[in-house]
Amino acid sequence: GNTSSTIPSFTSNFPVDFVFNKKPESTGNWEVMARLMQGSWLKTNETDAEASYSDATFDSNVGCISNNGYTSNNQAYMWKRHAGFDVVTYKGDGVAGRQIPHSLNKTVEMIWVKDRSSSNGWAVGHKGLNGGTNPWEYNLKLNENAAEESYTNRWNDTAPTSTHFSIGTSNRVNTDGDDYIAMLFASVDGI
């Protein structure tokens, strides 16, 4: 952080679509903000619903967030929607097998999903779960220190494609009427 009271407190050389930050030496929260949820934030280490945060601004082409509390002791990890990353929002409908479109244009290798409307925990899918054998029949919980688990209602036992990912009826990914955010990651040659 640069202690700026105006945007950007965290400087990049690109428009930021997703950021999480923390003081590395502290036990504080991992704060998560995204352009698609402007003015709100989540915490990857907690299950809290989305909360208002007026400094969670993404109105700069060279950084994000305005708050003079972010000093050089704060570290920000920033992404833009591009070749190896996408972020999407959707409203849950409780229907198993629902296909959520994305614009990654390559097969998703990892997904983080959070119910923004309630205190349901984070759901994580990854191509390497269960040793890479039927990995989308398994999931992790980003906010917990727990081993992977088999759970058919997260990803509907369906591997993501280059255009969609599938969700089941789990409250972590698809409660009827709740708002969700999903971060999608894929490998990029040379990175």
Describe the secondary-structure layout:
Elements: E1 10-11, E2 18-22, E3 31-34, E4 40-43, E5 51-52, E6 63-64, E7 75-79, E8 85-91, E9 98-101, E10 110-115, E11 123-126, E12 138-139, E13 149-150, H1 152-155, E14 164-167, E15 179-185
Antiparallel strand pairs: 1-6, 2-3, 2-7, 3-4, 4-5, 8-15, 9-14, 10-11, 10-15, 12-13
Characterize the structure shown.
The protein is 2% helix and 31% strand. It is built from one helix and 15 strands. A five-stranded antiparallel β-sheet has the order 5-4-3-2-7, with no helix packed on it. Strands 8-15-10-11 form a four-stranded antiparallel β-sheet, with no helix packed on it. It starts with 9 loop residues before the first strand and ends in a 6-residue tail after the last strand. The mean pLDDT is 94.
How do you describe this structure in short?
The protein is mainly beta and 191 residues long. 2% of the residues lie in helices and 31% in strands. Strands 5-4-3-2-7 form a five-stranded antiparallel β-sheet, with no helix packed on it.
Chain oligomer state: single chain
Mean pLDDT: 94
**How would you describe the shape?**
globular
How much β-strand is present in the residues? 25-35%
Neighbour order of strands in the largest sheet:
5-4-3-2-7
Low-confidence stretches: none
Keywords:
single chain, 191 residues, mainly beta, 5-stranded antiparallel sheet, 4-stranded antiparallel sheet, 1 helix, 15 strands, 2% helix, 31% strand
